Amino acid sequence: MTEERWARLFLPALRLDRQTLHQIRQSADLALDIGVGGFIVFGGEAAEVAEFTRYLRVAAGRPLWLAADLERGAGQQFSGASRLPPPRALAAHVDPVAAVQQAGRLTGAEARRLGINWVLGPVLDLDNERRNPIVGTRSFGPEPARVAELGGLWTEACMEERVATCAKHFPGHGRTVADSHMELPVVDADRHQLERDLEPFRAVAATVPAVMLAHVAYPGLGSQDAATVSPEIATRLLREEIGFAGLAVTDALIMSGFHGDAEGEGQGTGGSGEGARCVAAVRAGCDLLLYPRDLDACVRSVAEEAAVDERFANRCREAIAQSESLAARFDSAPEEGGVARLRSAGELTEAAKLGEQSAGRRLDLAIGCLSPSPDAPGREWSRAEPTELQIIVDDPAPGSGDPFGQAFTATLRERGWQLMEPGRAGNRPTQRLLLIQSTPRGWKGRATLTDDALARVRDACGTPRSAALVFGHRRILDDLGIPGLCAWSDEPLMQRAAAHWLDARAS
User: What's the pTM value of the predicted model, to 2 decimals?
Assistant: First the structure.
């Protein structure tokens, strides 16, 4: 097997959100010349993505994995596609089974029409550590049986649309208090405790085509290093004990957790450290390596090791054969027009019809996910009275799209609310709304509000009628101890849902 074939082990990233289409095509052509197994696609407009994935398939002339992180629907990555509530919100829906199935079908249908044949989800981590900075609302909840049930339903619904899925992050990222994007977290729990974390993965092992390993260390499972490079976890636990027979894949290799420490050993552009870690991951039992920093150097390291170690070469051959066989099963080019076809009722499959594309149906789904406090705003609130609106943004990410609160305020103004900015001279509001944004972000390194945000909330609660609308985890609202509503995430869809919910209860 030549070096070109060893590249089948890798899925580099294509970032349509950071480069021009011409630049992306050049990068893709170089990677295809090396012989990669596919790509992870980030960003871009939906129709452009559909056109581009069609180009990739033609250029490759063979089945490719075209993967994307779509935990909150295809709109999480691609503008023009549907953004959906996060998993924790779906689990809080008045009919969670129907909500999860609808979200899974819609995600799969849109992914397939865009030429994405591998959705990197669902998250099967438990929401069992309130200090966890990266899981939170990405999880279906804290109870293993519930996460297993809803994660399994989402997987089945998505795969009905002929799109592969990937359960993550094995053996469970929920207990971490550090973010594996930034460092190597260590979970200090024994095997008995970790059985709860393993339960959802055991439940889907026979049906999910792929499992993603976490860049997290679990001494209680016999490894001081990341699960990604641990044969005790990637082979003995996942394969031999649990019996998983699908693809074992890494989380993104660009993450510091993969390199073993907060400094990111081997992160230099030379890639020798990264290449050695790739060899270790394949030896441990990983079949595909996602999002390397230095693709050429990583492929070269694998090729050099395979040239001197026939056992390792055979391990690579087995991984590549399994990956190519599975990719061929899910190989499906996007139809002409891409996502535009999803908007034509005559072109929708029955499954896609159940996940209606109209804004109204998505809004109904989102409204059903909202979680009010027992003393949430009701008929005592009035559209006609001056309402002060305070927006508290918890460390905004640069370039994150429309300003937070824009969708909410526009919806209320359309419905006749008299909104005013805080601190306007001569205005004495009788009711005040606090819009609080706090969603899991890899760069934040925390799960709670900043001290500054908490102080602003406390200072704003003097009005007779004050309420907090939290666009984040329900525990944030509970900790504040004031009337309000949890909307789970800051997506415009959830903002509009919260505005409609409030308006429906006001006088």
Answer: 0.90
